[in-house]
Amino acid sequence: MKTSISTILICTLILISCHNTNSKKTRITIGITYQNLQNEFVINIQDAVRNKAKELNVKLIEVDGQGKAENQISQVENFLALDVDAIILNPFDQYGSAPVVSIANREKKPIVVINAVVVNLDKADAYVGSNDQEAGRIAATYIAKLLNGKGNIALIRGPNGHSAEIQRTEGIMEVLNTHPDMKIIFDQSGNWDRTQGLELMENWLSTGKPLQAVIAQNDEMALGAQKAIEASGRQKDILVIGIDAIPDALRAVKEGKLCATVFQDARGQGALALELAVKLCEGKPVEHTNYIPFQLITKENVGK
Amino acid sequence: MRNQAFQFLSRYGILIAFMMLIIVMSVLSPAFLKFTNVMNILRQTSINGIVAVGMTFVIILAGIDLSVGSVLALAAVVAASFAHPGEYPVFVPILAGLFTGSLCGFINGLIIAKRRIAPFIVTLGMMTIARGAALVYTNGRPVIELSDSYNKIGGKYVLSIPIPVIIFIIVVFIGSFLLSKTVFGRHVYATGGNKTAAELSGIITSRVIILGYSIAGFLAGLAGIVLSSRVMSGSPSTGQGYELDAIAAVVIGGTRLTGGVGTIFGTIIGALIIGVMNNGLDLLNVSSYLQQIVKGLIILLAVMIDRKK
Q1: Which of A206, A230, A235 should we substitute to test contact with B (largest number of B Cβ atoms within 10 Å)?
Q2: A200/B231 Cβ within 8 A
Q3: Which of chain B's residues have a Cβ under 8 Å away from the Cβ of A160?
Q4: From CA B167, how far away is CA B47, in angstroms rounded?
Q5: Is A4 a member of any domain?
Q6: CB contact under 8 A, A206 and B31
Q7: What's the complex ipTM?
Q8: pLDDT tens across B77-122, in order?
């Protein structure tokens, strides 16, 4: 009995100390739910959102969906209880996270979708992101150029069903379909994970099939695959390209270990999303679709 | 005669299942039995294998450790943070990682033995705490730019055998020795089989339990070091679901979840079955949707052959 009372007491204290006692209603309050804060790319978005919020004197309520759409839905319901002025959604799942937009519409709260898409995107007030098909197209086009349109390709995808996986695959296929001499001989998901990229590549290499290039749908998996290729001594024969331009990948491009990566501007997306949310709160008009372009990073332009 | 056949099956069933899997894979893929591929399988199995050896102790003790994947990640980021080039000699990150893992295991064991709370709950708590600690420690970002000497642990070979495999083999030998040849090992079986009886016969079960969980934590830490050096970065999100792979290896290997029965040898075969499956299905380029079904079926089949009595 004694212990349970003290446990409750401690829990209450923890909750109170976590609670932010800043409750002046003069500032704009914006609630944002991130798809998964265990992902470096999403953390970069978060950095930019925070900086912009400080700059514009906006109160920010941040929550982490932890890779589950159902978390994002309950989090946005909590936002309504906290009476936020606008909502920013960084959806994990294009179907599962869609109800968030419906909830915002129902409660007449402005909603900005960032980075990934949802199926009812047209119902949102604004979208900031990059067209993932374009990232796939850029990567595949560069590989096709380096291989003169001929060769065997291994494709390492993101998690099956993730919107970036679907769209990047579409972009890659669109380009490869125009090059009949480029064939995908291996195709598997590496779940954005470096270890999985490494192990897939080790296994593929041991089949001994001739391979000219690896297209990985993010840099972590590309770096894993590159490590396996380097260990097998075939680094000169097999090109590896990634997407996202994380610091480790930029270094690998500089050292010639990755032939290129595709830069997605996480910070640009984060800053613009917060700006648009503030404009919507102030009743100003905004563009619905705001694309931030991708950019190919090779050894030539990596420093810039 | 019939009886003998059954005895043979129940003792060596899992080995027979493993041999069958190897024969099928080598028929389906000519690359399967090549030396480099066998080394791939062993290297890819070593991480899960190291964790599973620790899990064997815990499960023989009639417990479970759900925290090993998170503890692995925490040890990986702590070790990696001491492994930047030119800062410390390579034994510092290794000791830091091993200490982190052991400490988590020790805390698990202490709470389970002294407060008598179900291991499932205690290690579930540690699972989220260690994951959270890894994220806090790194701000959610992977620890990169590790020294060459640290990266050698996961990347280099001795006599053309990958170092992770050598570490795995050493862990297996020490683990089997501890379980089958020492007083501590006998106490593990006795405590897991019947705790009250063990206490009546004079065994200090709390000490055995604390040591058992500390071993599991120590080995999770070791696996974290090997993994981070293999991918040359310590990621706080690594190792998710590894507890399930380790438990699967232990259970496929014939260790009873009710405690008191099991061997390291069985666990190794269990880990190898999982490793061979992952490798073989990749070689055959089986779609990743189908892979999950096939893996589940093979695990069930292996256990069914083993338990046929």
Answers
A1: A206
A2: no
A3: 288-289
A4: 10
A5: no
A6: yes
A7: 0.71
A8: 999 999 999 889 999 999 999 999 999 999 999 999 999 899 999 9
d(CA B126, CA B71): 8
Chain A: closest CA distance from residue B141 (Å):
5
Whether A179 and A276 map to the same domain: the answer is no
**What count of other Cβ atoms lies within 10 Å of the Cβ of residue B141?**
18
From residue A72, alpha-carbon distances to A61, A65, A153, B196, B198 in Å are 13, 5, 37, 47, 49
Contacts (Cβ under 8 Å, ≥6 apart) of B204: none
Let me know if residue A301 belongs to a domain: no
Q: Cα B36 from chain centroid?
A: 23
Which residue of chain A comes nearest to B240, CA vs CA? A193
Check CB contact of B31 with chain A, cutoff 8 Å. yes
- Whether the CB-CB separation of A125 and A111 falls below 8 Å is answered with yes
Helix (H, G, I), strand (E, B) or coil at B117: coil
The answer to whether A248 contacts chain B (CB < 8 Å) is yes
Phi-psi region of B77 (alpha: psi -120 to 50; beta: other; left: phi over 0): alpha
pLDDT digits (tens, 9 = 90+) for A47-64: 999 999 999 999 998 998
Q: Does A37 contact B at CB distance below 8 Å?
A: yes
Question: CB of A207 within 8 Å of any CB in chain B?
Answer: yes
Q: In A, residues 43-72, which contact B (CB 8 Å cutoff)?
A: 43
Place of tokens 């706080």: B236
Interface test with A, best of B34, B40, B135, B157 (most A CBs within 10 A): B40
* Interface contacts A/B by beta carbons within 8 Å: 76
For B119-152, what is each residue's pLDDT tens digit?
A: 999 999 999 999 999 999 998 888 888 998 998 8
CATH number at residue A181: 3.40.50.2300
- Report how far residue A39's alpha carbon sits from residue A64's, in angstroms, rounded to the nearest whole number: 11
Nearest to B144 among A160, A207, A247 (CB): A247
Output the CA–CA distances (angstroms, integers) from residue A55 to A49, A144, A270, B208, in the order listed: 10, 43, 13, 57
What's the pLDDT tens digit per position in A221-278?
999 999 999 999 999 999 999 998 888 999 999 999 999 999 988 889 999 999 999 9
CA separation for the pair B294, B309 (Å, rounded): 25
Same structural domain for residues A243 and A285?
no
What whole-number distance in Å separates Cα of residue B273 and Cα of residue B305? 13
Cβ-defined contact of B237 to A188 (cutoff 8 Å):
no
Q: Where are the domains of chain B?
A: 34-306
Domain range B34-306, its CATH number among 1.10.3470, 1.20.120, 1.10.1740, 3.40.50: 1.10.3470
Pairing of strands A86-89, A111-115: parallel
A92 and A150 share a domain?
no
| Domain that includes residue A104, residue range | 26-130+265-292
